[in-house]
């Protein structure tokens, strides 16, 4: 499998999808909003973008299955197999509120291991890409994680949970601790962009729980190929389908100490 060639094709597909998102954002009406669950928003834009991506990826690699946020394929994926893992619009709430921080995320994984991934930010026209063993790139230029090794010199990204609030106190304790030890924390509203920014050194680390595989499949590969470390909250590698992730540069060990101290 020529992962470099496949990744180039994914970039084209993601860029086309991003152009569609911008087109639809210019004429979007909030009457199109649907609710999948508590605070879990979706629109025709998410669904139509996913359909377009799936159709093109099916031609690119017919043997791969699909794990998608909107479930437009109707497939029940085998998580141990070769799968495309897709978020057609990561940052739907931002999109709906006309906040220009959203992205297209397309990952290819063999079981639990992402092997190719692309995150496209149409608002900044930045295409982040990586493939296993090939390094990480933004618009074709090599990127790497920041040189920071201490929390005291770091800027950390996270996300705010919008469901499953039973672990909120543990999360807030982590937040409180990091507020006092870092240059600050940021919440962009798109986990894919958070991870891409870790990969290119804008953020020094990112952590979040209650994520899905499509939120991170492309991003965790980007961070690893850019020289960073990615684990779950226990320090293991079950993050893709478990839903909690810590990704970072040299600050990862210190950040893990804080997470483990409060995450029970």
Walk me through what this model shows.
Belongs to the inositol monophosphatase superfamily. Mg(2+) 1 binds at residues 69, 87, 89, 215. The chain starts with a helix and ends with a helix. Strand 6 (113-121) and strand 7 form a beta hairpin. Strands 3-4-5-6-7-8-9 form a seven-stranded mixed sheet, sandwiched between helices. Strands 11-10-12-14-13 form a five-stranded mixed sheet, with helices on both faces. It contains eight helices and 14 strands. The protein has two domains: 3-142, Fructose-1,6-Bisphosphatase, subunit A, domain 1 (Fructose-1,6-Bisphosphatase, Chain A, domain 1); 151-262, D-Maltodextrin-Binding Protein, domain 2 (3-Layer(aba) Sandwich), CATH 3.40.190.80. The model has no long low-confidence stretch (mean pLDDT 92). Helices cover 36% and strands 25% of the residues. With 264 residues, it is an alpha+beta fold. It has helices at residues 3-25, 44-60, 92-96, 168-179, 191-199, 213-225, 239-242, 252-262, and strands at 34-37, 40-42, 65-68, 82-90, 103-110, 113-121, 126-131, 135-138, 141-142, 155-158, 184-186, 205-208, 229-231, 245-248.
